Each structure stands twice: as C-alpha cells, then as structure tokens.
C-alpha cells in the first residue's frame, strides 16, 4: 500500500458507504471520476478519495466542524461538489444545498432555517452570503488570499490527513434539501444517512440492470437538486463510472461535450428532450455515442417521447419519477422494452417501495388502474420537514405513508402513471416554484391587496407561473410592473410570466384559494 491508503472508518454513514465502494485496485485509482466540460479539468477516483479525506481532516481539525453542524453549499456543478458533500458527511455534519442563482433573501432564509454554521461558496455568489454573516469558505482560491478556500484546505492535508473518528449512525441527519411539498413555502426535507444509502442501493440496481462501470454520464442536472445529488454527487461514484459535468446548462455546449467525451448516458428533464427533438439536427455534432437518455422531474409528453424515438432509434429513452421527499426516484424503467410498451407511464415502482392509491374524495384505497393520489412507503422517505411538525404530519401519516400530491394510477404490474399534479407546486424546467412564496412577494407590493399564483402549461418549459392580482381601489398597475416587481425579488426561474387583474380571488369558506377555478379561468382566457 501507499501512504495515501487509509482504511475506511467503521461507521454507517453515507461517506463511508460511498468510499468503501470506490475502485480500490491500483489501476482503478486512475479511473476518471469527473471531467469539467468547461475547463477540461479531471479528477481521478484516487484523487477524489484523497481530497475527501484531506477536506474532512481540515473541516474537523482546522474549522472545528462537528457532528450535526449544518454546512450550506452554494455552488453550480463542479469537480469539487462531491468532495465537499462527502467530506462534510464524513465528519458527521449535514449538507444543505441551494441553487446559486437564488437571490440574497432566498439564501438568507435558507441559511437561517437550516441553522447553517458554515457556508461554502463560489467567489461569484459570495456577495449573497455576506449579509447573513455566516463564516464562508470559497471553493477555489481567491486572487487576494485573505479568505480560505476548499482547494487550499485540501492541499494543506493532502496525503497526510488526520482523520477524525466520528461515528455516524444510519439514523443521523445527512442532508437538508428544500421543497415546498404539497402546499405552502419551501421547507427543509430532512434526509437521514439511511435514506440516502437506500436510494444509492436502488441506483446500483438501475445501473446494474441497464449499464456498466464503463459508462460515461453527462451532468447538467444540478447536484444541489435531489436528482443530481443522488446520481452525480453521490450514487454513481459507487459504481466507478465517469461523469462529464457542466456548470450551467447550455444546449449547444452539451452536444459538443457529448461528442468530445463520447458520453453514453444523459439523465435529463423534459425540456431537454424537447430541445433534442427540435434543435439537435441544427447542431453539427456526432451524438452516436449516446445509448441512453433519461427524463424525470416533470411529465414528458407522449408525442415528444415518440418523436425522440423516431429521431434516435438506437437511443433508449427511460423515464423516471421521484420527489425530494422520497430521496429521488420512486419509479423507473428497468428496460427499454418496458418503456416502449408503456408510453404513458413514468416507470415501474422501484423495489422497496410500497404504494397506495387513495381516492381523493373518500380517502379510501383504490384497486389497480383507478385514479387517486399516490401514497408511498419506502426506506427512502424523508424523516420530516425540519422543525415543522405540522407540515410533517400533514404529509406523512402515522403509519409512515408519504402523500405525493400527484394524481395517478398504478397497473397490475406496478407501472406508475401520473395524470395530474394536484398539489400547488409549479414546475418550470423541472425546478420547483412554490405559488405561496410568489403570493407573499406579490402581497408585499403596496398596491396589491390580494394575489394567487397558478401554473399555466407551456410547451418549452413545462409550466410557467401566472399571477391573478387584486389591486387597491383607485390605483393603477400594469402587467409589466407586476412582472418586474416579482423578478426583482426571486430567482429568475421563479419569475411570474403572466399577470391577470381580477376583482376578487376565489376562496373557499375556510379562506383557501380555489386554484382549480383560476386554472380553468386561465384556460378560457388564454384561448379566447
Ligand atoms: C411527472 O423532481 C424531483 C425528482 C426527480 C427525480 C429524481 C430521481 C426523477 C427521477 C429520479 O431518478 O423532485 P422534486 O421534489 O423537485 O419534485 C417532485 C415532483 C413530483 O411530485 C411530481 O409532481 O415532480 C414531479 N415529477 C414528475 N411528474 C417528477 N418526476 C416526474 C415525472 N412525471 N416523471
């Protein structure tokens, strides 16, 4: 053995689990784990392992990060992302991640809500953390070296880390990701090490049934979202594949990278499948290395899927369905044959999942092929919404069933069909947009007295948020003024993109917004 070889610690946490799966043999150490398609920088599995140990050592010994401390990670995809997550997890600390395009106030809310003690940020996004006062480490070394960087911390102990012995239990918290769930504002989804290890095991099964460790994956899906975190941030490392990553999604650059690195696996989202169908012929790139394209995070239209199969007959198109609250995947196609035979389905219920379909009127369980709300039980279901017992018990019942807020049915063979989203959640390009959050932004405008936000279907992006607004008597406000006001307060993907003025917001006797009425009103309005 070399001096770099450190036995994995006898703990039960995610980092130990992932590291114990790493390719161990001398030659496999040179296997490439990540390539940044923007910079062409790569990291081998051996380097990754040493970086994780070094950073863990620095976090513990130098920065005094302790078990249960929450570390806020604000970064686009990078070759350091997994190192950061696994180092944090290996000292028993907790990662919370966010979209780096979030605004200062969105970030401040999450720092506060998660109770983060330390932040890790790119230089570009640092200014959004400064007002919170949270101690922050930069990802890469700054020009004028008065701040610590992850790069420097890794270099400091590279090759001679002093590994802290922090026992991690499966029931300990590993990650807090944010989701609005079925209603209201964004909440911290508390995932334990057991949750994450269970979903990673399911990922092995997926790759096992349909891939190999020589696969080259492409990662534009952000690692701060559950889909990207479980695939690229953690799970795929256990298999030893290579991930070519992209910091910020760019269609053309993605195709160039697929050709250059002979990518064969592309986990994607419906708008990207649509772009491949519509625009890939205009870009002169050789995509013949592609074997499999995935689609998840939002519904994929059957027509787009059909067109994709016609244009790329040798590429498998596999849908998957999941939620942050279930640590990612809940349904997936294990074979292309299954996927082709069930064009309306988003996949087969994943092993370890139990499902019930509940009649939304009566609350009674329904037989196969009958439409109702999907409820799941699985070792991957979150523990709770952080510090929010009320929302937790409204989402997970006393027997541990998670309400998904998705309306659908399941056939006799376990194939899942999503018919409609009945929860408030809007999905724009696969990203979550919580109507309640936009409504409170709208209500903060001095001339707006009431507001409701609903989804409007959109071919390119899936859905866009539309606002119904009641303005104060005698005042004037234009659609554009409302759009600009909201845009100034929220991340770009959450922008309200259409506004309609209304006399009163329809509400139930209990004061709940009757979103269904507004949705049907918007459909009439938009066609007339
Ligand atoms: C119709 O989007 C996600 C997780 C996606 C994911 C993860 C691992 C997909 C495949 C995979 O292997 O999480 P959230 O929390 O951002 O959003 C969850 C919601 C669901 O409740 C549903 O309404 O996103 C919607 N959704 C889908 N809807 C997710 N996937 C699908 C789908 N069809 N295939």
Could you explain how this protein is built, in words?
With 528 residues, this protein is an alpha/beta fold. Helix content is 30%, strand content 25%. The protein has 16 helices and 25 strands. β23 (448-458) and β24 (462-471) form a beta hairpin. α1 (14-21) crosses α3 and α2 crosses α3 (81-90). 47% of the residues are buried. Residues 1-5 have low confidence and may be disordered. It binds ligand 4UU. Ligand 4UU binds next to α8, β13, β14, β19 and β20.
> How many strands, what sense, and barrel or not for the largest sheet?
9 strands, mixed
Write down the Rg: 23 Å
Q: How many helices in DSSP terms?
A: 16
Structural class: alpha/beta
What is the assembly state of the chains in this entry? single chain
In whole angstroms, how far apart are the ends? 74 Å
**How many strand elements?**
25
Global outline: globular
Q: Which blocks of ≥5 consecutive residues have pLDDT under 50?
A: 1-5
Hetero compounds? ligand 4UU
Report the portion of residues in β strands.
15-25%
